[in-house]
Amino acid sequence: MINKELTIINKLGLHDRAAAKLVALASNYQSEIFIEKEGKKVNGKSIMGVMMLAASQHSVVNVAVTGNDEEDAITHIEILFNNCFEEEE
Amino acid sequence: MALIVSGIGVSRGIAIGNVHLLNRGSAPEVFERKLEEHEVASEVERFQGAVAEATNQLRGIRDTIPEDAPKDVASFIDSHILMVKDSMLRKVPIEIIQEQLCNAEWALKQQLDKVVSVFEQMEDAYLRTRINDVEHVINLIQQILKDQQFTVQMKSQPLKGSIIVADDLTPADTVVMQNQNIAGFITEQGGPLSHTAILARSLGIPAVVGIQRARSLLQQEEKIIIDGADGMVLAGIDENTIKKYRQKQREQKDARRKLNSLRNISAKTRDGQRISLQANIELAEDVNALKLSGADGVGLYRTEFLYIDRDVPADEAEQYSAYRKVVRTLKGKPLTIRTLDLGAEKEFDPDYQGPLTQNPALGLRAIRRSLKDTELFIQQLRAILRASAFGPVRILLPMITSYIELVQSLSLLDQAKRELKSEGYDYDPDILVGAMIEVPAAALSATIFAKQLDFFSIGTNDLIQYTLAIDRIDDQVNYLYDPLHPAVLKLIHLTLQAGRKAKIPVAMCGEMAGDPRYTRLLLGMGLREFSAHPSNLLEIKQIINRSKISELESPTKKILSTTVPAKIHPMVDALNE
Lengths: 89, 577
Prior knowledge:
The complex is a heterodimer of chains A (about 90) and B (about 575).
Chain A: E1 2-7, H1 16-26, E2 32-37, E3 40-43, H2 47-52, E4 60-66, H3 70-82
Antiparallel strand pairs in A: 1-4, 2-3, 2-4
Chain B: E1 3-6, E2 8-11, E3 14-22, H1 40-63, H2 71-85, H3 87-90, H4 92-100, H5 104-120, H6 125-129, H7 131-145, H8 150-156, E4 163-166, H9 171-179, E5 184-187, H10 195-203, E6 207-209, H11 214-217, E7 223-227, E8 232-235, H12 239-260, E9 276-281, H13 289-293, E10 298-301, H14 316-330, E11 335-338, H15 366-372, H16 374-387, E12 393-397, H17 403-423, E13 432-437, H18 440-444, H19 446-450, E14 455-458, H20 460-468, H21 486-502, E15 506-508, H22 519-525, E16 529-532, H23 534-545, H24 549-560, H25 565-575
Parallel strand pairs in B: 3-4, 4-5, 5-6, 9-10, 9-16, 10-11, 11-12, 12-13, 13-14, 14-15, 15-16
Antiparallel strand pairs in B: 1-8, 2-6, 3-7, 7-8
Helix pairs in contact in B: 1-2, 1-7, 2-7, 4-5, 5-7, 9-10, 14-16, 15-16, 16-17, 22-24, 24-25
């Protein structure tokens, strides 16, 4: 299992479209992906779960990935976070 | 009789068309019905059918989005598709049906209520409002269950050219309506940041939101006009008004088309002088607007967002990653990063207990603050230097007033370079450094400053405020704010001359640079680098490409030698004719 702390840097936080991108990415991997914020843990492949984390800008989340492709998964998830979820506005 | 209603204009443009009232948006009323054991299986099936139908409809809508539509249009629909497929909406209601022996509608409503209560407790206001999207998706399923859905209804009615008036619209509705070539829409709910508003802008549909009771004020099929720029809705109109607005509509379309055709053309005067047009940006994401404005680079990247509205200022790593991102996106175009310009307007430390000064604009701000808190300043310089390894970066120092501030800043920059070198970081050792000329003292000392610097950037907003001793946000004196005051023009002229003599470029990044009324005057005075908000750049470019510097020089000289402010305005107007 890989654990990584990631910071939300995009302005709007993990809102629906950002969450959609994260979930779409996470769903490409076989690994189980969980995201945790302040003791609340959700499935990284569930958009409702990710949205309900209420992760706003500057909040830090812990991403836990377990499975065959865990390294690949965490690398790409980290890139997505750092790219502000490819947001334009 | 004419009726004028005003709301919030969220997407520019004029639309003229007949009202099509849409009574939807809110969920159909849901009642509880108890099931017999033997009914459960078929109820579950009914629910699954509705979810499948909702998924199909959303996918179908997604497929109709043209490939050249902005990327975010599809992402709105994508997130809704993911929600319908989420087990919280797809599976949990089934469990509720089975456990409570209730109808599908009631089960879904209970699940929605549960989700709503979680969202209601969110602290972040924007994230809290995202419950709207969940509601949109659940309403779609409810409507399918009740067999009164929107998309079918829409398909059966020709909407081409009409103006939709609704309580609220979902992103999916907006895409469907766009495909039917509606002229515009009005909603009772929503604000400038609501999804429907963002989509309307992306798709170029004129739209006004936030008109309460719009559906009772306007009548089905009556002809109305909406002006998305100022949020105006005109009803009960006569032929003359329609004619006037049709003309205005045509003019706007023409002007827009002409401006857009300039995107990939560089700014060059008719006598062949190349002018650099750069963008002022605030957030890393703003870089994307550059493509649309055809900018040559970023002339002012404000960094205050890394310090304000947060508990602690961004550390070096976060700053570095923000700067590097912009450098990379610019792909070789120059980036000018202004160091922290805070103090006067906003105190970034929320726990700040220090004395509240009477005159914040004249207090400890911008470079003064950075030179006092050198640790914070070095941290920012290090982040900027590290980003300079990835492309051309210039450093811009705000509010320099005396020579000693320059010397101190440059020596701290040297220190930052030495630190990075010994730590083995890459950076551009010859990084260009410039100063904002925004204090009269700086304009008057420009010749001396030029010896230490690689460029100047004139900040007109502060330069005018400090020269004329006017607080722009003070309503009692702001009528005195005048970019064309002879003293202001003289200081700008002095700065341009000093730059020319020292052979260093002089840019202007204040509002004056983005105001088309002053473009020709500034060209005549010798300005060759304009930096403005991306939305102004195409208009400035159009003026530059229609101007001839040789024709501007002698009238500009006359303007500069005029000492009566009232006489200058008509002279500048004449320059623009």
